[in-house]
Fold:
Amino acid sequence: MIFLVAISIGVLAGYFVRKNISENKIGQAETLAKEIVDKASKDAETVKKEKLLEAKEEIHKLRSESEREHKERRNDLQKFEKRVVQKEEVIDKKLQSLEQKENTLNQKIKDIAEKEEEIEEIKVKQLEKLESISGITTEKAREVIMDNAEKDVRREMSIMIKDIETKAKEEAEKKAREIIGYAIQKCAADHVAETTVTVVNLPNDEMKGRIIGREGRNIRTLETLTGIDLIIDDTPEAVILSGFDPIRREVARIALEKLISDGRIHPARIEEMVEKAKKEVDNIIKEYGEEAAFETGVHGLHPELIKLLGRLNYRTSYGQNVLKHSIELAHIAGIMAAEIGADIKLAKRAGLLHDIGKAVDHEIEGTHVEIGMDLLRKYKESKEVIHAMSTHHGDYEPQTIEAVLVTAADAISAARPGARRETLEAYIKRLEKLEEIASSYEGVEKSFAIQAGREVRIMVKPEELNDEDIYLLARDITKKIEEELEYPGQIKVSIIRETRAIEYAK
Structure:
């Protein structure tokens, strides 16, 4: 019995001990589970906040871009509406003036018509009398007179043209060559080739993956903010920036180099660096404009004109840097003005500002000459400067010697060997068109475009054209070339008439 009691007590004691142990383990398990659940909740809350923050940043960026685009479009529309209103006012004034002139002309036409009727009656009577006296008809007499008059006039015109050209060349060519040669020798600007890509070197190829970012997020952000395409290919340790706007390309280059040196590359950092790069480029543009004004000695320019001048450093025309071209033109115009006693400051100022419209011609409608005139009026430049710059492409007739000098200096700077380039296709077409124009006239046997299209040499048939005729032919060909071709500098037209007498002694 004692043994059984002892066993029973042992069993009961073991049961209670195991029960206490199980309850302790369950309590620990419940505590551990609660801690895991709490930690999971906190982690989920953290992830939620991060995603919300990313979403807010994306929304803020999209909203900023939308507001900026809206503001730009609204500014463009306001400028366009202003120009339309101005044009309407000008048209209204012109219409009123035309109506007045039309009324006056109608009255004059009526008076002239009445007088013409009276004259016609008198003329008919006189012709009848002349025909009866002379014995030939009016048509026959007219043909004889016109033929004789045409021969006499053509001969006298050829002789006169020859004499005038000879005298003008003797008096002016030597002096003009001296002035132009002196100006060219004293001034020579650098020339740069037009490019549409920029290469940014990387410290290693691993940086390419960081630039691309998770699912391309970084590269898309950079392309969106700068408007430039990033080309990441197999080129070792290099990224290519491609775009036709050189200012945007420069902003992208500076921003990317800053990001690489900083090491932190993510959308928010990219946006910050792009803004800094834009400010840095604005400062660089201002410095370029100030350097150009200082180098040419042109003072008192409006600050906005200084910035526009700086923008020309990123603008090319046929491969020629427009700012370098403008500086060279200002020097050449100033030197020629000094040689002939013209206004040196006016010539330099107009020369430096002659292509100012090219700084914004991709943003505003119209030719760069018209845009430049509007900009100079807006920033209170003098009428003399505006006129001198407005004539350099022949859109307006030059009224001052400084305007002529600016036009001549523009042609000299553009025609300097190596200053400008053109595609092979356009070059060949220009040569073919030049020979085609020369060969289209009667009496021309052969024509050759030589000296890279700056001279056309024409062989004529001596039995069809005499010495006087070739001067008229040269003037006709020159006028047709000026009307139908576009070319830098000038084209020399040389006509050769050769008569050979050959005999053989036997």
Notes: The CA atoms of residues 78 and 84 lie 10 Å apart. The mean pLDDT is 82.
